[in-house]
Amino acid sequence: MNKLLEMQSRLYSFAYSLTSNRDDANDLLQDTTLKAMDSEEKYRDNVNFKGWVFTIMRNLFINNYRRVARSGTTTDGSDGEFFLNMSQESGLETPEGALSVADINAAINSFSDDYRVPFSMHLAGYRYAEIAERVSLPLGTVKSRIFFARRRLQGMLADYRK
Predict the structure, then answer these.
(1) Which of 106, 119, 122 is nearest to 160 (CA)?
(2) How far, in Å, CA of 86 to CA of 82, rounded?
């Protein structure tokens, strides 16, 4: 695995670009190196080694991000479920902040179930494949419904961007 050792500086740069934090980048680099060494038997000589290792790093970053996002996600099924994942500095302290969040929730709740359910699940951190499985729809249909729901929400709330 001399190739892996030679790539450490490039891998660190990529890890830092993903995490924007030196300690997290070092952790991601270490996890990637260990995963690549553990999966050495899965590497095929005719495959781009650099691409293989960078893919491992990207996948580890995404999986860690999703794990952290899910561990902090709490839903209770009420209309206010979108408040549960917000930081303390969410803008809700002001009447204007509360009004805008209420408007966003009202806009989302105005969608038909065909669009609201997949979009709400996506906001809650579910992956497209998980949403497709839970609502018994093809993956492409779920992706397009989330896309169109996002576009519709942007149009409905265009006044807030000004």
Answers:
(1) 106
(2) 8
- For the stretch 66-123, pLDDT in tens is 777 766 655 555 555 554 555 544 444 554 444 466 677 788 888 998 998 998 888 8
Backbone angles phi, psi at 57, to 5 degrees: -65, -45
Torsion, Cα of 82, 85, 90, 92 (10° steps): 50
Q: Rounded to an integer, what is the distance from CA 85 to the centroid of its chain?
A: 14
Pair of tokens at residue 153:
């929400």
Give domain limits for the chain: 2-71, 81-161
pTM, whole model, 2 decimals? 0.45
Distance CA 151, CA 156 (A): 9
- Is domain 2-71 classified as CATH 3.40.50.10860? no
Distance, CA of 125 to chain centre = 7
Task: Residue 131: count other Cβ atoms within 10 Å of its Cβ.
Answer: 22
